[in-house]
Amino acid sequence: MGGIFSIDSPLMQGLSKILDCIFLSILWVVFSIPLITFGASTSALYYTANKTIRNSRGYVWQQFWRGFKSSFKQSTILWLIFALIMFLLYNDIQIVGLLGTGNLAFAAKVFFIVLMVILCMVIIYIFPYVARFSAPLKSVAKNCVFMMVRHLPWSFLALLVVAVTAFVMWLIPITLFIMPTLGTLVSTFIFERIFVRYMNEEDRLRERKLNGKEYL
User: Fold this and answer.
1) Whole-prediction pTM value?
2) Which distant-in-sequence residues (6+ apart) come within 8 Å of 16 by Cβ?
3) How far is it, in rounded angstroms, from Cα 22 to Cα 205?
4) Residue 145 CA from chain centroid, whole number
5) CB count in 10 Å sphere of residue 56
6) 3-class secondary-structure state, position 178
7) pLDDT, tens only, 144-197
């Protein structure tokens, strides 16, 4: 009985992971409240989910704050730019809807919706990329677009993960306190398999040593 409830037992390790997931989700929610910090908060969420929740390196608050500070400038700028573009596309859809219901209006609406979907797939690369790599602002956007197109099936799957996560939180609001981390954790298995292809051998070996993972 003592073994089951020891700090190193699978049960206690599992409970610790669940508590970490809840704590990380709460941090993401709190740091996203100003809205302008949503990008930095999301980059920190990915950084911590991958490093602490998945690979058991460091502590949640310590890694979240480190990821938030290190990604703040780039994530905030990119978030504001892409949020503005998304807002403009949404307005275009609304304007097209007011112009009529003919074939031309329908085609225009479909066009803008497709652009929004593509933009969403780029955005979901942005924050994990900023969390994992250091690169100039223009290179971040260019590289994310490139990876999104090159790994299109994985991009759709990542978008599906985000959509399902958001839907569950909308359907069951209380899951806001755990689903952000769970959804992000699932997405790490997608993005890390993509990102590793763009890492040099030295970085791969270093990651393998730190994480003890064979997928690198």
Assistant:
1) 0.88
2) none
3) 31
4) 15
5) 13
6) coil
7) 999 999 999 999 999 999 999 999 999 999 999 999 999 999 999 999 999 998
Type of residue found at 55: N
Q: What is the CA radius of gyration of the chain?
A: 19
126, 82 contact by CB (below 8 A) = yes
Residue type, 153: P
Q: How far is CA 86 from each of CA 31, 72, 73, 101, 153, rounded to the nearest angstrom?
A: 22, 21, 20, 23, 22
The full DSSP string for 43-83 is: HHHHHHIIIIIIT--S-HHHHHHHHHHHHHHHHHHHHHHHH
Which token pair is 113? 């919706």
Distances in Å between the alpha carbon of 194 and those of 41, 58, 144, 153? 22, 24, 11, 12
* Residue 146 phi, psi (nearest 5): -60, -50
